[in-house]
Amino acid sequence: MLNIAFIAHDRKKEEIVNFVIAYENVFVPHRLYSTGTTGTRIMEQTGLSIHRFMSGPLGGDQQIGALVAQNEMDLIIFLRDPLMAQPHEPDIIALLRLCDVQGIPVATNVATAELLVKALERGDFAWRELVHKYKPGIEE
């Protein structure tokens, strides 16, 4: 079971909902997270249960980033709107940087998201389970 997050800018929300509908069966066995409105829209259109954080501009991107920083996130699908300036752009850049630091796969468009979900479906994310299994803990 992997931790997967969904994020979408306003003009990409319909696209992410349709994407998740198309691959709902792939996401069922995993723990799902999302920023506020995106998660609500996905849950309204699917049978999936999603832990929702705050809206992205209100800190939701940073909440997901905290899980990334702790190496607790396994995959992020973040459909960004490249044609619209975002008031919380520094938060977005920080989240993407953390994904690079921790080696977390992140898709910022539906083409890359589809490739990653196909890999997830094939079992190509088994290496993430090893990351969790051998993650250093607090020694007593």
Q: What does this entry show, briefly?
A:
This protein is 49% helix and 14% strand. With 140 residues, it is an alpha/beta fold.
Shape summary? globular
Helix content: 40-55%
Determine Rg (CA atoms, Å). 14 Å
Please count the helical segments.
7
Residue stretches low in confidence (pLDDT < 50, at least 5 long) are none
| Strand neighbour order, sheet with most strands | 3-2-1-4-5
Distance between the termini: 27 Å
Order of helices and strands: EHHEHEHEHEHH
Question: What is the number of E strands?
Answer: 5
Structural class designation? alpha/beta
| Mean pLDDT figure | 90
Q: Strand fraction band?
A: 5-15%
Largest sheet: 5 strands, parallel
Please, could you describe this protein's structure?
The protein has 140 residues and is α/β, with parallel strands linked by helices. It is built from seven helices and five strands, in the order E-H-H-E-H-E-H-E-H-E-H-H. The chain has helices at 13-22, 24-27, 36-45, 60-69, 89-102, 110-122, 126-133; strands at 3-8, 31-34, 51-52, 75-79, 106-107. Strands 3-2-1-4-5 form a five-stranded parallel β-sheet, sandwiched between helices. Helix 3 (36-45) links the parallel strand 2 (31-34) and strand 3 (51-52). Helix 1 (13-22) crosses helix 3 and helix 4 packs parallel to helix 5. The radius of gyration is 14 Å and the shape is globular.
